[in-house]
Design a protein that fits this description.
Length: 283
Amino acid sequence: MPEAVRMDGKEVARRVRAEVADRAQALSQAGAAPGLSVVLVGDDPASHVYVGRKEKAALKAGIRGATHRLPESATTEEVLALVQSLNDDPAVHGILVQLPLPRAVDTDLVLDAVHPSKDVDGFHPANAGLLASGLDAIAPCTPSGIMRILEEYGVDCNGKDAVVIGRSRIVGRPMAALLTNANATVTLCHSRTHDLQGHARRADILIVAVGRPEMVTADWVKPGAVVIDVGINRTDEGTLVGDVDYASVEPIAGHLTPVPGGVGPMTIATLLSNTCLLAERGG
Ligand code: NAD
């Protein structure tokens, strides 16, 4: 059996980060050094790890990063005041609100308060609306990173049947919009979809973003399909697995992303390139 081409997100991310370093240098020389501000509220340990990684990656790429920390007890008003001060700061080009926010904070209000011209994650309804309308928009980092992986591996979306499993605001929905804008015929599946496996089996391009370990097995996949695994799940043994059973799908698929080392590294790399894009636009 031929094996699927392993799509190496780490390698593509390295390329993106090198491009970002060049763009950041050009911006700095023009007196507009790109600045990324992260809002971190509370004590969620995973969020602290993610923010630490983002800070390190920004610094390495020549992007000025600053993390603004608020305690677990912060109110919605306090978080909104911080976001407003960053909206007003001309040295800040991108604002990222690390999710999840503590339960007492109104996440939708906070995300909507980020000025659309500084919305590095593309979560603001104005940017989501532009993307859904097929207009020029800052798109969320994970699905944008996936589009770059497809491009790097020569996958042409034009006229292809694409199936996205998962309809979250940060992955599934914007993924479906990006694929539609790239001329794929898109089916967006979710927890209420009937015959999920039947939909998946018809896909030329299958994107899985659910959060269920190894849910997609060989009999879900059309021979030769491009399979992108967004899921990150920790097993009881402490290892990371995706939403796709890599070992069983590898002999069937044409292209496949691993977990770890597939989509994950592209998310931070795209965050950095989105920061440059906002700085280049002078936002
Ligand atoms: P989410 O929980 O917000 O959304 C999950 C989606 O899956 C929902 O739309 C739901 O309808 C759908 N779903 C749930 N059970 C289903 C089922 N049995 N069949 C079909 N659909 C089902 O999750 P999310 O934020 O979109 O993340 C999804 C996964 O991707 C998680 O494992 C997350 O950790 C991972 N993730 C990875 C990255 C990355 O950089 N690699 C980024 C974001 C999320």
